[in-house]
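1st attempt posting a full record on here, be nice pls
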Amino acid sequence: MKSILKVFTLLFISVSLVSCNLTSAAGLTSQGQPTKKVEGDLTSTTANSAVNFDHSAWDKLLKKHVDSKGMVDYKGFKNDREALNKYLQKLSSTEPTDAWSVQELLAFYINLYNAYTVDLILNNYPTESIQDIDGAFTKGFVPVGDRELSLGGIENGILRKMDEPRIHFAINCASISCPKLLDEAFTASKINEQLDEVTREFINSDKNEITANTPKVSSIFKWYAKDYTVNGNKDVIGFINKYSDTEINPRVELQYKDYNWKLNEQK
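the predicted structure (as tokens):
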């Protein structure tokens, strides 16, 4: 009887551990990472943080290998593998804490997501799509301290919990329909202006077909609908209208475009 109970106990522990790992991979937990919330209007500053992380190496690589349309020269990145690896190692050897400002945390995790997405593509290059890579968003392959984060975990378990919906237009999933990869690193000193820039650019780009009465928008606005709020209330159209050159009638129903997962590679 004791042997049977021991077996069941071990099975229970095993299942619990697997469940925990799957939950983390799916992005339902922060895996111990700090998730400060943006309070009020976000401002750009480096003055209120215990750490000011240097992203200049990533900035240099982006300026060299990403064009104005956000298309990526992955072959060029492969030639600069050593420089990219050094930046990735710097990210991974750093463990953010609650002593970091919300600005520093936003910049760090956005750059972490984008840099390791490029790394993932390079490790599987050539590839037609990130969706052809097994577990691209769910496997924990991004080391931060003694943790292994997934891309989904960074997005859903950390960044989305910071209550800053503009992050959806800053992180890039290496696909045509994604918001473009900005050709500069995000930094605490410019974070608000950068988030405004990428949000406005995406909403007014060909990723959406915005008209007053028959708008057809990116599926990003459907997948993360609850994140887009105005005055604390869910309001996708109201959020879009804050940035759109064309105002959408608030009473119309949004239609959504198919998502193109083809690799965002320069030709």
